[in-house]
Amino acid sequence: MNQKEDADMNAAATLHPSSDGLFGRVLGWFNDRSAKAALRKDAAKWVQSLGEAKVKALVEDVPLPEDIFSGVHTYTKEENDAAQEIYLAYADKHYANESAERRKELAAWMLYWRLRQWSSETNHERLGAVIAKDAARREAYRADYDARLNAAAAADATTPANRKAYAEQAYRNTGKYLTNTGRELTQDERYQLGLPSVREQKSGLLDAR
């Protein structure tokens, strides 16, 4: 056998599944991943076979410390992790004959249903907070709007520009040129402010502007 044939045989050996070559490592990784996926699938089916009612009953049998999920609006990652550990410890103790994957899946579902319960219990408070916040926002808007109207009314008598702007706004709202006190402007006041006369208003010239 020449040197080239020997090199080719060595190269082929590194690709054989039973070798320590790249192909063997890839195949081993794939087989390991497939095996883990099969275990997870089995665990999911097992928990499903227990039934929703059973998992919920287990949640009731494992009370959590009062400081876990005690908030109304949210909960922390630390609370989530602590609850997961408690449920996993319960599963490890009472289902010791089951696989680790099954016990982990059971703990995960127990945590899921506890969080669903927390959400239901605190929904009313969260909704109330949203309503109160929205009411406060509307009240703040009305207060700001009233303040701006009052400021405009106070400034109405100070400059012709403000008086004209107020009168034009009043006309758009009521069809009349008014002062901030509700009095209709006289013909002379209209002329002074550069507003249409009564005649122009009646003839439709105002709408053409």
Helix content: over 70%
Strand-and-helix sequence, N→C? HHHHHHHHH
Quaternary state reads single chain
Taking the sheet with the most strands, its summary is: none
Principal-axis shape: elongated
Summary tags:
209 residues; mainly alpha; elongated
Task: Please tell me about this protein's structure.
This protein has 209 residues and is mainly α. It contains 9 helices and no strands. Helix 4 runs antiparallel to helix 5. It is elongated, with a radius of gyration of 39 Å. The model is unreliable at 11-19 and 205-209 (pLDDT under 50).
In short:
The protein has 209 residues and is mostly helical.
Give the topology.
Elements: H1 3-15, H2 22-50, H3 52-61, H4 77-94, H5 100-156, H6 160-174, H7 187-193, H8 198-203, H9 205-208
Helix pairs in contact: 2-5, 3-5, 4-5, 5-6
